[in-house]
Amino acid sequence: MLAKTALVVGATGDIGKVIAQSLSNAGYNLLLCGNKGEFETKNLKTETSFLRFDIRNPEQVKSAFEKLPKLDLVVCCAGIAGEEKLIIDQSDEEILNLVQTNLLGTIYVNKYVLPYINRGGCIVNIASFLGVYGCSCEAVYSATKAGVIGLTKSLSKEFESFAVRVNSISPGYIQTKMNAEFSDEEKRSIIDKTPVGRLGTADDVAKAVLFLADNDFVNGENIMVDGGLII
Question: Quick check: 190 and 199 in contact, CB under 8 A?
């Protein structure tokens, strides 16, 4: 059986690196995309190639995708989190960067990658539990992730004629550099509120990606990977 091929956008991030490793372990050949940071390659077991572009720039996204092979899976996990602050204290530049990266970037990826996805393939967009429930001092970030969920649900219907499924994953508090600023006390408070009794890991998110890739009867869903934090 021919190996499947997956495109991972945001593969230089903590979650993206683990997703790439998990997909390689599952036998997927990989195209890893990033803008800043280094790709993790030493433990990858399958054919791997790399693309560099700025997800905020539609022309760069379109150009980078022009020579793509046929894909079976696309994972869009590129994103940033701004500093926690009231929206009135956020600069317009900070707001624009969040919207361009998290929402517009995801839109561009979904738009320009569609022609390269095999019938029966799927897209997995990484959102956030804050996109469902919101959070004080994270208004713009939450809005961008809510937009990703709305985009996902809409494209699951729009891409029906192409036989391409579109789902999203909303991680809770995951142990990454993005959440490294939490104090031990804050982490303990989160753990105490989480029924499974721990913070999440990038591997928890990667397992959800594999589930969505394998289950062809799941479409238009937003899968919460938050340990039951919000029930």
Answer: yes
Residue 108 known to be catalytic: no
Q: Are 152 and 106 in contact (CB under 8 A)?
A: no
Q: What are phi and psi of 228, to 5 degrees?
A: 85, 15
CA 124 – CA 84 distance, rounded (Å): 27
Q: What is the pTM (predicted TM-score) of this model? A: 0.95
* Long-range contacts, stretch 207-213, CB < 8 angstroms, 24+ apart: 207/22, 208/169, 209/19, 209/22, 209/23, 209/75, 209/124, 209/169, 210/22, 210/23, 210/26, 212/122, 212/124, 212/165, 212/167, 212/169, 213/6, 213/72, 213/73, 213/122, 213/124
Structure tokens, 82: 């701004």
Q: How far is CA 205 from CA 54, 62, 195, 210, in A?
A: 23, 27, 17, 9
CA–CA dist 199, 25 (Å, integer): 24
User: Choosing from 112, 116, 141, 173, which is the catalytic residue?
Assistant: 141
**Largest Cα span, the chain:** 55
Helices of type H across 174-220: 184-193, 202-214
Question: pLDDT tens, 137-170?
Answer: 999 999 999 999 999 999 999 999 999 999 999 9
